[in-house]
UniProtKB/TrEMBL annotation:
InterPro entries: Fumarylacetoacetase-like_C, Fumarylacetoacetase_C_sf, Rv2993c-like_N. Residues 1-63 form the Rv2993c-like N-terminal domain. Residues 68-262 form the Fumarylacetoacetase-like C-terminal domain. One of its GO terms (molecular function) is isomerase activity. Keywords: Isomerase, Metal-binding. Pfam families: FAA_hydrolase, Rv2993c-like_N. The lineage of its organism: Bacteria, Bacillati, Actinomycetota, Actinomycetes, Kitasatosporales. It comes from Streptomyces varsoviensis. This is 2-hydroxyhepta-2,4-diene-1,7-dioate isomerase.
C-alpha cells in the first residue's frame, strides 16, 4: 500500500495511492492514478473514505512530518571508501532537524555558506509506532513503511566542522517522498540517483553494512522513536556535486522516484 500526504484546495490529508503510477507516466494506463482519502492518519487503524481525487490534481507533501530524522553514515563500504573513511564497527548516527524536510517537487535551496553540496540517495524507514529498546524479532512491528530520501550534504562544511549539524541539517537538506510504501521487503532493493537525467549512484540495499534490524535495535537502545520519525539508512557509492539549476532524482525499486530541483537560496 502506498500512502501519500497531500494538499488540495488548501486542505492537507493522507490518501492511499490507487492505480499504476509508472504506467500513467509512460502513457500506457487507462485513466490516471487516484488518491483515496483516508479517515484519520496512517499511524493507527484507518478506513478509506471512498472520496477519491486524481493524483495529478494534488500537491504531494513530505509523506510524514517527523519529530526527528536519525541518519546513519558510512553504511555502505564503497561509499565510506570513496570519501576516505573507515567502515564503522557499529552504526554511526547523526540527526537532521525536522526543518530540513521537504517533499517531492520542492526546491533544494543551495546554502550560502557552502560551495560543495552533494546528493546522497537513501532508503528511509518510517516509524509507525512509539518504540524503544526494540528486540530484533519485533523490528518489523514498529515500521510503517519505506520512502525515498536524499541526504543532501554540504561536503566542504562537513570536512571542516567536527559536528555535522550545519553540513547535514540546513533547511531543505532532507527531501522525502513521494509516498510511504507499507508492503515492501527492504532487504535487497535497487537505489539509483540521477542528476539532470545522468546516472550518478547505483546500488542495492543488500550492500548495507548494518541491516535495518541492526539500525533500529541500535538506535532504540538509546532513544524513543515516535510515529512518523524517519531513519535514513546510508547511501551507496557515487555521491557527487549539485549545482543551482540541477534536477536530482532518487529512485528506489518498489517505491518510486523523488525529484527535486536545486535553486539559489534567496
Amino acid at each position: 500500500m502506498r500512502i501519500a500526504r497531500f494538499s488540495i484546495d488548501g486542505n492537507v490529508a493522507f490518501g492511499v495511492v490507487e492505480g499504476d503510477v509508472e504506467a500513467a507516466k509512460a502513457g500506457t494506463a487507462e485513466g490516471g492514478p487516484v488518491l483515496d482519502i483516508i479517515k484519520g492518519h496512517p499511524f493507527a487503524e484507518f478506513e478509506r473514505s471512498g472520496q477519491k481525487v486524481p493524483l495529478d490534481k494534488v500537491r504531494l507533501l513530505p509523506p510524514v512530518l517527523p519529530n526527528k530524522v536519525v541518519a546513519v553514515g558510512r553504511n555502505y563500504a564503497e561509499h565510506a571508501a570513496e570519501l576516505g573513511n573507515a567502515v564503522p564497527e557499529a552504526p554511526f548516527a547523526f540527526f537532521k532537524p525536522s526543518t530540513s524536510v521537504i517533499g517531492p517537487g520542492d526546491a533544494i535551496a543551495y546554502p550560502s555558506f557552502s560551495s560543495e553540496v552533494h546528493h546522497e540517495a537513501e532508503l528511509a524507514v518510517v516509524i509507525g509506532r512509539m518504540c524503544r529498546e526494540v528486540p530484533r524479532e519485533r523490528v518489523k512491528d514498529v515500521i510503517l513503511g519505506y520512502t525515498c530520501a536524499n541526504d543532501v550534504t554540504a561536503r566542504d562544511v562537513q570536512k571542516r566542522e567536527k559536528q555535522w549539524a550545519r553540513a547535514k541539517g540546513f533547511d531543505t537538506s532532507c527531501p522525502l517522498g513521494p509516498w510511504v510504501e507499507t508492503e515492501l521487503d527492504p532487504a535487497d532493493l535497487g537505489i539509483m540517483c540521477t542528476v539532470n537525467g545522468e546516472q550518478r549512484q547505483l546500488g542495492r540495499t543488500g550492500e548495507m553494512i548494518h541491516s535495518i534490524e541492526d539500525l533500529i535495535v541500535n538506535l532504540t537502545e538509546a532513544m524513543t522513536l515516535l510515529p512518523g520519525d524517519v531513519v535514513l539508512t546510508g547511501t551507496p557509492a557515487g555521491v557527487g556535486p549539485l549545482n543551482v539549476g540541477d534536477e536530482v532524482a532518487v529512485t528506489i525499486e518498489g517505491i518510486g522516484t523523488l525529484t527535486n530541483k536545486v535553486i539559489k537560496r534567496g
